[in-house]
Amino acid sequence: MVDEPSETESAILDAALAEVLDHGIRRTTVSDIARRSGLSRQTVYRYWPDAQSVFAALVTRELVAALPTGLPERATLESTVAVFVETADRVRRMPLVERLRDTDPELFARYILDRLGTSQRAIHAETARRLSAGQASGDLRAGDPLQLAAMVLLIAQSAVQSAPLVAEWLPGEAWRTELTAALTGYLRP
Asked: What tens digit of pLDDT does each residue of 144-185 get?
């Protein structure tokens, strides 16, 4: 997983979150983050070389925080899918995700189309772990859990990313229902 940030790192990331929510990434500078955190720019630079690195750490922190902890005693198809859908919905409704989708879509495009980030790798690892548990109980289809996790990540990521586009047809609960159906169909033995 991802290491826990120090108290200073957390203060910087909290300030960065507030700045991004207020102004978007393009209009947020290291000076803005430092001022809001009550720290000096030099302190921010001790932890990250530039604003983009702070933003990457912020997105990672927020997305990894959405991941569930622990495993149920028996990882059934229904409980596994429910965890995936709940997590995807939590990410879909995150103020940071909504703000970035609205103001900085090219950032999303970079992580959706060009490269895997730390948060995606953490989500993939957690998904594979849960899929392995469901396979061990016989409640999920066979297959390489890493490959299945990659497809679950793609399905959930596209559902989260494109949710506003289809909100007219799939408002909140309908979105959850249809994502549940898609993942259930994919993971059923």
From this structure: 999 999 999 999 999 998 999 999 999 989 999 999 999 999
Provide the CATH number for the domain around residue 21: 1.10.10.60
Q: What is the pTM of this model?
A: 0.86
> How many Cβ atoms are within 10 Å of 30's Cβ, its own excluded?
20
Together in a domain, 110 and 167: yes
- Same structural domain, 35 and 70: no
Considering the domain architecture, whether residues 14 and 81 belong to the same structural domain is answered as no
Alpha helices (H) along the chain: 7-23, 30-37, 41-47, 51-65, 77-92, 95-103, 105-109, 118-136, 145-162, 172-187
Split at pLDDT 50, 70, 90, the class of 4 is confident
Contact 156, 185 (CB under 8 A): no
Place of tokens 């730390």: 118
- Asked if residue 23 is part of any domain, the answer here is yes
